[in-house]
Amino acid sequence: LLSVCRSCLVKYLEENNTCPTCRIVIHQSHPLQYIGHDRTMQDIVYKLVPGLQEAEMKKQREFYHKLGMEVPGDIKGETCSTKQHLDSHRNGETKADENLNKETSEEKQEEDNDYHRSDEQVSICLECNSSKLRGLKRKWIRCSAQATVLHLKKFIAKKLNLSSFNELDILCNEEILGKDHTLKFVVVTRWRFK
């Protein structure tokens, strides 16, 4: 397992299909689909480097604005409100602010219970092309465009009572999808039909 800057790794994999450290072949034709985001390492880096997370979020917002695209919710909704709430308790602010914080946390809790219903939705037809597996009773599902292929694998494994989701591959137009691809990414880059 190797932790490398994603942009450096992507540049490397444009020319190569092997691991930059041990030179083992990642995938013959699509090595980029088999690299994953290390969220734990990212959190550690953000905690070690002051202001990096805010700077990254700002760069990402500017990028989306420059392209004239809507800024995704996870970039738009930075952790500022939580940070301010924690800072106010550290600074020993008065109890008058606690009522305001209580109301804010109740509103936040209502937003958290949205379960991605306000996200852009994607409708998917899941068809089984293996004789070893039975098909799903309901092959059409509708879910958030932010869901990943890994989410789909886990869902299907649970529905089919499989012991492991690793036994499954999900394909779109005869191409195996990487587990970290969002469904929005799949629709934009892989789907060729209306």
From TrEMBL:
GO terms for molecular function: zinc ion binding. Coiled coil: none annotated. Its main location: nucleus. Residues 139-192 form the RAWUL domain. It is found in: Nucleus. The keyword Chloroplast does not apply. The keyword Transcription applies. Residues 80-116 are annotated as: Disordered. Gene3D superfamilies: Phosphatidylinositol 3-kinase Catalytic Subunit, Chain A, domain 1, Zinc/RING finger domain, C3HC4 (zinc finger). Residues 84-107 have a biased composition (Basic and acidic residues). Signal peptide: none annotated. GO terms for cellular component: PcG protein complex. Keywords: Metal-binding, Nucleus, Repressor, Transcription, Transcription regulation, Zinc, Zinc-finger. PANTHER family: POLYCOMB GROUP RING FINGER PROTEIN (PTHR45893). This is Polycomb group RING finger protein 3.
